[in-house]
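Bit of a strange request maybe. I'm writing a small parser for structure token strings and I need a real example to test against, not something I typed by hand. Could someone generate the tokens for this chain?
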Amino acid sequence: MAATYAIRGDVTWPTDLVLPARPPKLAYIDMFGVINLAKVKTGTAPPGYDELYEACKRARTEGRVRFPMSATHVIEVYNVRSVDQRRTLVAVIEELSGFEFMLGRRQIQQLELEAALNKIPGVDIPPQGPISLIGPSVLWAFGKRGNLTTNAPDPDAMARHVLQQLGIAIGTDAMATLTAWALRELLTGPENHDDPELRAAGYTRKNWHEMLKHRAMHEQELVSNLDAEPQLRAGRLRDVVNAREMSIELIDALTSLTMPMGTSIGELLDYDRDKLRDFCDSMPSTRVATSLKERYHRDRLHAWTPNDINDIDALSIAVPYCDSVFADKAAFNAVKQCRELRIFDTELPRTPKDFTKWLDEQSSP
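Reply from user aminoacidic:
Good idea to test on real output. This should exercise your parser:
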């Protein structure tokens, strides 16, 4: 049976999340774009990226556009085995973003959940905020404040001493120089991911990959469930995906918020399917995630991978909270074809030429 319902035409923005003033606009470049921009330095970039790189630098220097990164960039940089390639990618990320990162999806989900729950009569969750969407640290993408702090009586003298020991030019602001060096090293990672001493000390990239793999496995399990009940894929697939999102991706946060109230999300929404659907679609990042998952699940032959989950995590915060998203062809098509995401009015340039044009059209503050 085909679905007959209409997806709600609005969302509930988290009141505790502080969005930066515009202009400058926010432009998100996913990892495929960063990689191609890095190739400009070696003369191997695809057509259009030389011009795009210059447009990005102009827009940032002139204060017209900011290029915040996400946790997905961090994960994908760490997936590169060659430390030289990682350094090249990090140099591009630093040049474009100045190490500005968007708050992680989990933290944004929490704020969106609180705002959505507060729309329910009788619910009053106290504010956490204000919490900035963008922070000046790699760790901000993982919900950590990051950046260097010191108890030294003279922080500048301390920074100068450390920089001298490291053989790094001090510049005009020693603490800023030291902080940038630390962020650069943190994002680049170790020379060798398999260094025995690091392994012995507990260093591993496995945990994060295993988590993504586990989440991809849940989606692949749903493929099998939908194959067993094909009427769900042909009918109310969005309800199924929303229910899974609530029971898997959001369950811990939902439980922590509703348990102190002595209730559950089901009870708060009267176990009404329409209310549950509207609740999910009211949260910006969840709306994007479920829309993309719904689209992928309509293709029963789609084989879910950790990279799918990584991409959806990035797009779920970039699409609603940035003004422009430059993504690869698959992501571009997926977002473009989800009509319920047009509410965000996000610019989706298809080619580097399109993105260059958009960047050059943006005005100064």
